[in-house]
């Protein structure tokens, strides 16, 4: 988790974990324009607002891997 100006952001690894997919799948979603929430490109990294990710998971019934 990374905080920028008071907002929590997740890495692609954290996004993938919470969606129950591999990092490769999460990267493919972005490449194909199918990522579940809009990412913020920061250098070579992509970050996702934590609130957006959690809202998407809640609305789509996805669960984290156990």
Can you describe this structure?
- It is built from three helices and four strands.
- The chain has 66 residues and is of the alpha+beta class.
- The chain has a single domain, classed as Arc Repressor Mutant, subunit A (Orthogonal Bundle), CATH 1.10.10.10.
- Strands 1-2-4-3 form a four-stranded antiparallel sheet.
- A hairpin with a 2-residue loop joins strand 1 and strand 2.
- Helix 1 packs across helix 2.
- The protein is globular and about 30 Å long.
Question: Quick summary of this structure?
Answer:
The chain has 66 residues and is α+β, with helices and mostly antiparallel strands. The protein has helices spanning 12-19, 23-31, 50-60, and strands spanning 2-4, 7-10, 39-42, 45-49.
The level of helicity is 40-55%
The top level CATH class name: Mainly Alpha
Would you tell me the overall average pLDDT? 88
**In one word, what is the shape?**
globular
Secondary-structure blueprint:
Layout: E1 2-4, E2 7-10, H1 12-19, H2 23-31, E3 39-42, E4 45-49, H3 50-60
Antiparallel strand pairs: 1-2, 2-4, 3-4
List keywords for this structure.
globular; four-stranded antiparallel sheet; Arc Repressor Mutant, subunit A; alpha+beta
